[in-house]
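User: Sequence recovery, please. Input:
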């Protein structure tokens, strides 16, 4: 697994990768976090909203965007403060679950932001 954390502008603040995770997981996690922060929407939701034939499908052509589950917004005090991107689980839905579990683990700390 690789996990990227961005600020509210999508700029990477932290990145960690397990030594056995694929080389692609670094870029994928970073792009997922960037996408969630930039569009203020979890990438799992964006995956469906931007599918071929949908009105928002053109956003998939934004060069940095990654419309695969695993990018989750980080909110505190009702405002976007950043995003988390996870890559390496067997599927974007599992990446999304991992990101949400990580955020749940620090939920109390986020309340103090």
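Assistant: Recovered sequence (113 residues):
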């Amino acid at each position: 697994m690789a996990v990227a954390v961005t600020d509210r502008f999508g700029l990477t603040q932290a990145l960690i990768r397990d030594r056995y995770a694929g080389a692609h997981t670094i870029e994928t996690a970073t792009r997922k976090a960037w996408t969630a922060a930039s569009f203020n929407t979890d990438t799992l939701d964006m995956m469906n909203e931007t599918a071929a034939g949908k009105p928002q499908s053109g956003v998939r052509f934004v060069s940095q965007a990654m419309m695969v589950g695993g990018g989750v917004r980080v909110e505190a005090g009702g405002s976007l403060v950043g995003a988390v991107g996870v890559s390496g689980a067997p599927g974007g839905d599992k990446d999304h679950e991992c990101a949400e579990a990580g955020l749940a683990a620090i939920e109390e700390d986020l309340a103090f932001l």
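Residues 2-110 form a domain with the Beta-Lactamase fold (CATH 3.30.450.150).
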